[in-house]
TrEMBL record:
Family statement: Belongs to the sulfatase family.
Keywords, comma-separated and alphabetical: Calcium, Hydrolase, Metal-binding, Signal
Protein name in UniProt: Sulfatase-like hydrolase/transferase
Family annotation (PROSITE patterns): SULFATASE_1 (PS00523)
Keyword Metal-binding included in the entry's annotation: yes
The UniProt record lists the keyword Transport: no
Signal peptide limits: 1-24
Source organism of this protein record: Photobacterium rosenbergii
Source species, domain of life: Bacteria
PANTHER family named in the record: ARYLSULFATASE FAMILY MEMBER, ENDO-4-O-SULFATASE
Span of domain Sulfatase N-terminal: 34-354
Amino acid sequence: MNSAMKKHGITLAVAAALSGPALAQEAPTTPQQPNVLFIFVDDIGYADMGFQNQSQDIVTPHMDKIAAEGAIFSAGYVTASVCGPSRAGLLTGRYQQRYGYHDNTAPFIKEPGIVQGLDLNAKTIGNYFQDAGYVTGFIGKSHDGDDKKYWPHNRGWDEFYGFNNGAADYFVSGFNTMNAEERAYSSIHRNDELVEDFDGYLTDIFGNEAVEFIDRHHDKPFFLYVPFNASHGPMQAKEEDLEKFAHIDDELRRKMVAMTYNMDLNIGKMVDKLEEHDLMDNTMIIFMSDNGGKPNGNGSFNTPLNGAKNTYWEGGIRVPTTITWRGTIPAKQVIDTPMISLDILPTTLAMAGIEQQEKWQLEGENLLPLLTGEVTEMDERFLYWKTINKSAIRDNDWKLVIHNTLVKHPKPELYKISEDISETNDLAAQHPEQVERLLAAFERWDADNQEAKWGWNRNLFPHANGWRGRN
């Protein structure tokens, strides 16, 4: 953590910690530690939320209202352009490459004996908040190791309800009549237990579970993480939602818009429950997508960005991002300062008055001073991305993209990203000094990473591991 942001974060944390007991003696009605509702969605593109003001066909009134009450980050990033590693970085507050977690779990491993999954020695955001006395809930998609020791209920979450895979069917009735392979694709668990047959639409089911979690735990501080699988494939929407968007001719886009609309309705149910318990002033609500959209796969849009999911152009890693805390974060903000999902852990720790420790080696920054207006800008820093066949780095102004690190002399692309978010003008030839500077910074960062432990290329990862999942 840089010194300026660390100073502010400790100031806020100490103030919260010192004020709590004193105020409790003078005024028994003092609010409890603030809650977190973190909504992390799947394969939703940069243009696919109404508050982004990019797409005319998207209808997301509940998230638009939440975003208007807080801050939208125009340059919000995740640490990877696919699901699994993006979630690993987010949940640990560290670049997932530190653990050799470069890609989704895959058919091939680097060497015999490697077990795919987030290093069991790594603490998650759930662990940090659980240790601080919070009730922690995880409702939705996990995408980690097959063994249950990697599953959320064994990684810091008091309550897990969801699935562990890259995708799941949205219409979930008939579990007990499915064959083993189908059931592995769609199975829902509550902690260790397989959820038996039930009817419903999965996004609604996750929304209802989140509402019930808030109802059960409204009288104590909680961290509720809701990683919806919407609007990742398979593209399955409710008929009534499809009818609402019958005017959209493209069938794939219509399904995507309908699925996103349904997700927004379920977010509305969570907010209504927070309002019912008078918790909105005491709850930070965070919204991000896990990676960029996949236009050819789920009909998402990344306008005006270049690229898509599984690329390190902006369309793969720059996502809709908003943070709201009514009464604390001023409303109607648009913040252009780059942020990354690694920042969520330090920010929520500071919000809760939990002092960050050096030994945790967190790699994000506390955004609260920026969000509240205590500072107007952050110290400049680099953001990094890497997997086996591509890498990227950016600072406030410049971004370098390298598409193939397997060849001896990869050709980098350089963009003045602060002025060219569509990456239309490659300036590598005109500014070799920037290429050299960014490459040197990237190599310094990369020196502390572990090599990729699994992947999709049999030539690079020669050992089959019996994996049979889906992305």
